[in-house]
Amino acid sequence: MEGAFILEKLILVVIIFTISLVIAMYSTLAERKIAGFMQDRYGPDRAGLFGLLQPLCDGGKFFFKEEIIPAGAHKPLFIIGPTLAIITACISSAVIPWGQNLTIGDRVVTLQVADINVGVLYIFGVIALGVYGVMIGGWASNNKFSLMGAIRAASQSISYEIGMGLSLIALLMVTGSLSIGDIVSQQSGFVNWNIWVQPLGFLIFMTCAFAECNRVPFDLPECETELIGGYHTEYSSMKLGLYMFSEYINMFVSSALMAALYFGGYNFPFMYDLGLSENWITIIGVLVFFAKIFAFIFFFMWIRWTLPRFRYDQLMKLGWKMLIPLAIANIVLTGIITIVKDTYFN
Amino acid sequence: MQSLSNRKKVLEQKPMNFWERIYLPAIAKGLSITLKHFFKKIPTIKYPEQIRPYSKNFRGQHSLKRDEEGRERCTACGLCALSCPAEAITMTAAERQKGEEDLYREEKYASVYEINMLRCIFCGLCEEACPKEAIYLDGPHVTADYLRKDFIYGKDKLVEPKIDLVQLTQQKSL
Ligand code: SF4
Ligand code: SF4
């Protein structure tokens, strides 16, 4: 491994890290703006043009707020909680392919930090870790509301991880690869997108992604009306900010994941028919990928301001009694279709 | 039992059918409603830049009027206080002394005139009761304050400022 390679990856890591932080920052503004428009009002529009400076103001406010650690809290764990949440949120973007190869001089740069051949499993591992941040934070607060939120978060993410995994198995049966880079490059053009062969799988995956991100209608770990603030009831200042950031970064990453796995990632229709050079295809591909991500983020928010929160038993029922059987049926169906196609139509 | 009004409707709760049970059509419907609102015209008035026009008969803070010569019109008859349903007005009457003719129009005037703005309900009855056309609720909003005592407005806040009519007419003719 030569130095230039490490440097190249390092630059890529920094860029992706910055992009995800900026997007998380502006997601907060977008969320409030979209909420505003959906409720026939403007949302924040005082700080800067269209309120564009609002996230900076909010961030500044977070830094200057008093930092409170409750007397009964377990101090080290109380600090580890948000740290873990933000770290797991940030590292999950490592295996996402942002674009194709970029040729600079005689170097070929892959726009993916790590194309590990078990990328899908890696994502799963990181997502499973993500709930530890919430759980540890909630437990360390020594507050019953926080504890309730933490317990809810844990059981919710365990339940929905199964549905998510099963829906992905059907996808993997179609693609035949665990590497996200391969999965995306298989979907070139428009008709090869996985959504056309796995619509049910996508629906299940998306529902589970909503639940994993603790977004409405699955935001029971936070649940202001019942649990005050859920797992972050006792958090203040930038620690609360970290939790919120990790939520928005999670949303960004799962949008990217959905776009990559089911909607062709950086692939766009007629990409090889326009007579563009490699580099241009890559650049447009990256832009297209981000457009898809933003569409998904918008969808996340759109759902949030449309649907009310589930009751806890409804949540469990949906997870265990509907999504998991559906996902299993989807696997069986995919298997049958694959075999039928292989034996009779080849 | 038969209802007396005959307007009672018995609602029947049917079991949900398949489409209702899988929720997706309902979710799609909800999403379309929120999206419709996304493109709707927003009725917000951006306040400091834009001010909503007041109604012509808006009732704000009271002002005690002066006549054309700049004399206070109020004669401390107490009719406004009597008519006030909230009992917000109190006053003390005094007799006009020699040489004060340019200050007060009538021989009797209010040396103290107080309205408790926390009691007042801005009904405008004082305005209607006044035989001398001395009080009108044509001021701005009564603003917030920190102490209760600061809501009792005396003559210093109520009596309208003296306008130099001569100067005003000169300005207008310019
Ligand atoms: S407006 Fe009504 S309540 Fe207020 S002082 Fe006049 S009569 Fe009393
Ligand atoms: S304001 Fe009018 S009604 Fe009230 S005391 Fe003066 S003259 Fe009488």
From TrEMBL, chain A:
<protein>
    <recommendedName>
        <fullName>NADH-quinone oxidoreductase subunit H</fullName>
        <ecNumber>7.1.1.-</ecNumber>
    </recommendedName>
</protein>
<dbReference type="InterPro" id="IPR001694">
    <property type="entry name" value="NADH_UbQ_OxRdtase_su1/FPO"/>
</dbReference>
<feature type="transmembrane region" description="Helical">
    <location>
        <begin position="77"/>
        <end position="99"/>
    </location>
</feature>
<keyword id="KW-0830">Ubiquinone</keyword>
<feature type="transmembrane region" description="Helical">
    <location>
        <begin position="280"/>
        <end position="303"/>
    </location>
</feature>
<keyword id="KW-1133">Transmembrane helix</keyword>
<feature type="transmembrane region" description="Helical">
    <location>
        <begin position="6"/>
        <end position="29"/>
    </location>
</feature>
<feature type="transmembrane region" description="Helical">
    <location>
        <begin position="323"/>
        <end position="340"/>
    </location>
</feature>
<feature type="transmembrane region" description="Helical">
    <location>
        <begin position="119"/>
        <end position="141"/>
    </location>
</feature>
<keyword id="KW-0472">Membrane</keyword>
<dbReference type="Pfam" id="PF00146">
    <property type="entry name" value="NADHdh"/>
</dbReference>
<comment type="function">
    <text>NDH-1 shuttles electrons from NADH, via FMN and iron-sulfur (Fe-S) centers, to quinones in the respiratory chain. The immediate electron acceptor for the enzyme in this species is believed to be ubiquinone. Couples the redox reaction to proton translocation (for every two electrons transferred, four hydrogen ions are translocated across the cytoplasmic membrane), and thus conserves the redox energy in a proton gradient. This subunit may bind ubiquinone.</text>
</comment>
<feature type="transmembrane region" description="Helical">
    <location>
        <begin position="162"/>
        <end position="181"/>
    </location>
</feature>
<keyword id="KW-0812">Transmembrane</keyword>
<keyword id="KW-1278">Translocase</keyword>
<dbReference type="InterPro" id="IPR018086">
    <property type="entry name" value="NADH_UbQ_OxRdtase_su1_CS"/>
</dbReference>
<keyword id="KW-0874">Quinone</keyword>
<keyword id="KW-1003">Cell membrane</keyword>
<comment type="similarity">
    <text>Belongs to the complex I subunit 1 family.</text>
</comment>
<feature type="transmembrane region" description="Helical">
    <location>
        <begin position="248"/>
        <end position="268"/>
    </location>
</feature>
<comment type="subunit">
    <text>NDH-1 is composed of 14 different subunits. Subunits NuoA, H, J, K, L, M, N constitute the membrane sector of the complex.</text>
</comment>
<keyword id="KW-0520">NAD</keyword>
TrEMBL record, chain B:
<feature type="binding site">
    <location>
        <position position="77"/>
    </location>
    <ligand>
        <name>[4Fe-4S] cluster 1</name>
    </ligand>
</feature>
<protein>
    <recommendedName>
        <fullName>NADH-quinone oxidoreductase subunit I</fullName>
        <ecNumber>7.1.1.-</ecNumber>
    </recommendedName>
</protein>
<keyword id="KW-0408">Iron</keyword>
<feature type="binding site">
    <location>
        <position position="120"/>
    </location>
    <ligand>
        <name>[4Fe-4S] cluster 2</name>
    </ligand>
</feature>
<dbReference type="Pfam" id="PF12838">
    <property type="entry name" value="Fer4_7"/>
</dbReference>
<keyword id="KW-1278">Translocase</keyword>
<feature type="binding site">
    <location>
        <position position="84"/>
    </location>
    <ligand>
        <name>[4Fe-4S] cluster 2</name>
    </ligand>
</feature>
<feature type="binding site">
    <location>
        <position position="74"/>
    </location>
    <ligand>
        <name>[4Fe-4S] cluster 1</name>
    </ligand>
</feature>
<keyword id="KW-0472">Membrane</keyword>
<keyword id="KW-0004">4Fe-4S</keyword>
<keyword id="KW-0479">Metal-binding</keyword>
<feature type="binding site">
    <location>
        <position position="130"/>
    </location>
    <ligand>
        <name>[4Fe-4S] cluster 1</name>
    </ligand>
</feature>
<feature type="domain" description="4Fe-4S ferredoxin-type">
    <location>
        <begin position="65"/>
        <end position="94"/>
    </location>
</feature>
<comment type="similarity">
    <text>Belongs to the complex I 23 kDa subunit family.</text>
</comment>
<dbReference type="InterPro" id="IPR017896">
    <property type="entry name" value="4Fe4S_Fe-S-bd"/>
</dbReference>
<keyword id="KW-0520">NAD</keyword>
<keyword id="KW-0830">Ubiquinone</keyword>
<keyword id="KW-0411">Iron-sulfur</keyword>
<feature type="binding site">
    <location>
        <position position="80"/>
    </location>
    <ligand>
        <name>[4Fe-4S] cluster 1</name>
    </ligand>
</feature>
<comment type="function">
    <text>NDH-1 shuttles electrons from NADH, via FMN and iron-sulfur (Fe-S) centers, to quinones in the respiratory chain. The immediate electron acceptor for the enzyme in this species is believed to be ubiquinone. Couples the redox reaction to proton translocation (for every two electrons transferred, four hydrogen ions are translocated across the cytoplasmic membrane), and thus conserves the redox energy in a proton gradient.</text>
</comment>
<feature type="binding site">
    <location>
        <position position="126"/>
    </location>
    <ligand>
        <name>[4Fe-4S] cluster 2</name>
    </ligand>
</feature>
<comment type="subunit">
    <text>NDH-1 is composed of 14 different subunits. Subunits NuoA, H, J, K, L, M, N constitute the membrane sector of the complex.</text>
</comment>
